[in-house]
Give the backbone structure.
Amino acid sequence: QVQLVESGGGLVQAGGSLRLSCAASGSISRINTMSWYRQAPGKERELVALISGGGITNYADSVKGRFTISRDNAENTVYLQMDSLKPEDTAVYYCNAYVTTIDYIGNTYWGKGTLVTVSS
């Protein structure tokens, strides 16, 4: 019913920047909170940043001041601008959204992930 597709991952040197995008499509009535999670090798998935439907944001301490989350409600898209990247930011980044579909059912959806690799 709903698909989330991430893009923008890749290989970057430490100190560099990347911008991730996540586009939602399908039988969407409303998208509430949209989030970015990441999972590094051998570690649990962790919340990186979230943005509410009203634009309120929250960040993990490890990325505060370096990452910025934003959204385009008209395009059903969420972005993650990542600056001053560090090798420890290397992970698969996943998009997450709580979506109410046109049949008024709410569910959480995940994208398949995009790999970000930061070299030292």
User: Anything to note?
Assistant: The chain has a mean pLDDT of 97.
